[in-house]
Amino acid sequence: MSGDPLAPHGASRVQQAAKLVLALLLAGLGLWTLHRYVPALIWAAILAIAFWPLYQRAMRRWPPGQHNVMLPAAFTAVIGLVFIVPFGMVAYQAGKEVRGVYETIDKARTDGIPPPEWLGHLPVGGQQATQWWQDNLSSPDQAEDLLKRARESRLMANGRELGGEAVHRLVLFGFTLLTLFFLFKEGERLNDQLRRASARAFGPAGERIGRQMIASVHGTVDGLVLVGLGEGFLMGIVYLFTGVPHPTLFGLFTAIAAMVPFGAPAVFGIAALIVLTQGSVFAAILIAVFGFIVTFVADHFIRPSLIGKTTRLPFLWVLLGILGGVETWGLLGLFLGPAIMAALMLLWREWSEGRDAG
Predict the structure, then answer these.
(1) Nearest of 245, 233, 252, 261 to residue 326 by alpha carbon
(2) What is the distance between the alpha carbons of residues 311 and 351, in angstroms, rounded to a whole number?
(3) N or C end of the chain: smaller count of CB under 10 Å?
């Protein structure tokens, strides 16, 4: 044995390789086990990063005790209400509209569906649209046939699955809030563990990349979420004064759509069209003009300044990160896309400038 000095070293390398294989196998099994809950974990991490500076200020104001749960519970509850209240408003308004929908269906079965008055006032094609409506929807038999085809359509078949999907989304939301609570509660300890693990695995470059990605999340929250809420608030005021039905809900939808660059025009365009069909041409023009001014200023001046300054990314890469992220990851891509682009850009700068990334 003494004649083989490489034996201990070889055994150590085999053990390290076996340990690495075991770690990768367990990580893969863990991800597979939790794969349906990974989006909830990522959302909780994003929310924790976004609100962590505010949470730290609150901790300095009210220092936590040894077993403190009140502050993380309060923050989690407030964040949960930020999401629950708007969706509750939508559900309440939808519930109010259900009765009207059923009355419309019953009336269609007995009397048909008469053409609405605004159809004839369309600036282009109004007469042809009214004639088509009278030929296809005005009689009870034609309306009944239309309703029957709608019930048998794939859309209605898929609609029966919405209940189960809604329950699953509700469970994910609850799991997100539960994870967020523990991230707030154990945030300091987890932050130290991640910093030590990053330094051990990647050296100084790991911490730099992590800080850049966290800064990117903060910049994205400021540039997308807060700016989107501001756009929705301003457009909600315009909807209120121009007579758009349900201006609060339209303002909420505008805020959500505005979080994706160039998404708000789809919502205020629908609002302008609704007002136009009601016969108010000036109000429709006002909504369109004001909407384009608000989105132009937000997308070309405010967002590039907020996101680009934080992530040190050119606006083109910010935009590509957001759009590509949304296409690949859904809503999570709003935050993951710019964070990934920021990390890649940091690695590129260090490599191109000849600095040691380690």
Answers:
(1) 261
(2) 18
(3) N
